[in-house]
What we know:
The structure holds 2 protein chains of 2 kinds.
Chain A: H1 2-23, H2 27-43, H3 50-75, H4 83-97, H5 103-128, H6 133-151, H7 161-168, H8 173-190, H9 192-202, H10 204-209, H11 214-240, H12 251-261, H13 273-293, H14 297-321
Helix pairs in contact in A: 2-13, 2-14, 3-8, 3-11, 3-12, 3-13, 4-5, 4-6, 4-11, 4-12, 5-6, 5-11, 7-11, 8-9, 9-11, 12-13
Chain B: H1 2-22, E1 42-48, H2 54-72, E2 76-83, H3 88-100, E3 105-108, H4 117-125, E4 129-133, E5 144-147, H5 150-164, E6 169-175, H6 181-196, E7 200-207, H7 212-225, E8 231-234, H8 237-249, E9 257-260, H9 263-271, E10 276-279, H10 285-297, E11 305-307, E12 313-314, H11 318-323, H12 340-348
Parallel strand pairs in B: 1-2, 1-3, 3-4, 4-5, 5-11, 6-7, 6-8, 9-10
Antiparallel strand pairs in B: 10-12
Helix pairs in contact in B: 2-10, 3-4, 5-6, 7-8, 8-9
Amino acid sequence: MSDTSLASQSGTALYLAIQRKRNIGVRSLFLVVLAFLVAYGVLFPGLFTATGFAKFTQSWFPLALVAMAQAILMLTGGISLAIGALVSLGAVVAATTMTGPLGVTGGTLLVCVVGLGIGAATGLIVVKLRLPAIVVTLAGSFIIAGAALLVLPRPGGAIPDWLSNSLAGNTPAAFGVLVVIVLAWKLYLATPLGLSLYAAGEHPVGAYRSGVPVDAARIAAYAISGLLCTGAGLFVAAQTGSGDPIIGNSFTLNSIAAAVLGGIGFLGGQGTMRGALAGSLLLSLMISVMFFLGFTPVAQYVAQGLIIIGAVALPQFRMRAK
Amino acid sequence: MKKTSLFASASLLGLGLVMSAAGISQADAAANCIKGDRKAPYTLGWANIYSVPTWMKQTQGTIEAEVEQLKKEGLVDKLVVTDAQGDSNVQIQQIQSMIDADVDAIILIAGSSTAPARVLADACAKGIAIINFDSLVDSNDVTAKVNTDSAQWGEQATKFMIDALGGKGKILILNGPAGVSVSDDRRAGGEALLKANPDIQILAETNTAYNVAPAQEAVTSLLFANPEIDGILSFGGALSAGAVLALDKQGREQVPITGENARQFLELWKEKGLKSWATMQPNWLGAFAAYTAVQALEGKDVPAFVKVPLPIIDNSNIDEYLARAKDFPADGYIYSPYDRELFAKLLAQQ
Lengths: 322, 350
């Protein structure tokens, strides 16, 4: 008994120590995000009402999901340029099925299957055929974008009103879903595949020799990433009440920006999901805060660039100074 | 996109007629979304989708000029401008911010015909005047939509070409990108006239981006294949400039050509002594939207859809346009003159 309690005690201490160490790289980002949150709250006190909080988290939600989708891949040393196309596909599949015979349940299932399926297929091609992820997903983005246009050539379709109102109405339901997804991610990291994720990214050869299922971990990462993307698409469809076959385009670049801002390295195995989430939150906050500060569009372009450079460069300088 | 929204607005007009017939007992004929609880001076929000293209910059210029005028009249005290950088999701977030900041009116070029519908419904429910122009939404929760007619653009251009050739001749047709609604709608607008005039022989059609270089390249290769060309039916100003340059480089004689009010094309028109015709998407649609928003807030009834007639440039008035060329950027558009009288006339039409 005492043995296990000692083990769990030192286990907790070890866990906290690891978490502290992991937070080092993103601490300054957290501070920046906090500063922006405070600024937003001061500029727009309505943020602290249920509706205000709901609307803000709804703006952030799809970006948070695609940032996670990109971060998972970058942690395994991969990347995806098909994020935006997958979001679009998820949105048009949801908008064309949910008011049809499949209904909301069937439509949601189909969106999940499409995401998991395309993600897994991409993963198989990248991992088993040993092709560069950037090339495979670039080609994939054209195919997926084309598929989205085939499903719905012009903006249209519909999402049942009750679904739009419950996911993207005046309640912070989207934030609740995000909390659940983050908890699920924590659980996943405790599974054998989840544990292998970082190892597969940081040192694939070493991990393989230690018996880590490197290939399986990487393919699973692509599948999960695909699911997150089409899920984000479903949400965008619910938020807008309809489907638009090119609505997701900008998410590809923004997902990479959020992940890099959050301290995820391009070489795999570096960074944390909380960093990527904070990065996406900062990108989303910037838009609203600059609006309330009354920045002109030109000033917004410049400020956005400066903030991103600042958030990425400061921790680097500090590390070098040490 | 344009076409569907035109249908939507046509049905909206029908709906509006039914509703106004049914709601005669209502004391005030206020425009859609207007509750009458907002008082001057107003704050206007200008939700742009993308501010970088020259057309957009010039459009913003007309909005700013109109707002200056409205400020002097004590009707407006502030203009807030957002730029979604081409991202419809960002545009939704920015419209939400405008609602949060409680602006009195939103003028909008939509990045997607469907995506802003729900956030606009929220804004409309809060009594914010919404004037949507150029790229329209498929939603009825706006105060007014303002646009020209792309099909009419195509029809009038085709009519000029048929008349210029006396109903008989060989032509090239230059289109914008396939699958883009403006491009499709302009081409479709000319189809009936082309069918009715079988002596007009279509040698070839091109689809290029609305830029000079790709159009010039496409026309150059068509010139090699077709030694005899009587006219060029172009559905875009930059395309026309590219075609004129291609003919010039090949040493070919210029032929009748249609186009748009791009300054470069108008200057080539004069320089090469072309027989030509051009129309435009007037930049002052922006100024008109700002004006209309304030009119609606002031309790005036505004039509749910304002169809702006296409201003025409031909050999009779090209000199008037070129005389004002120095006031416009070199890569910009020389739009037709506008004033409050014109705006009032546009609003009076039903």
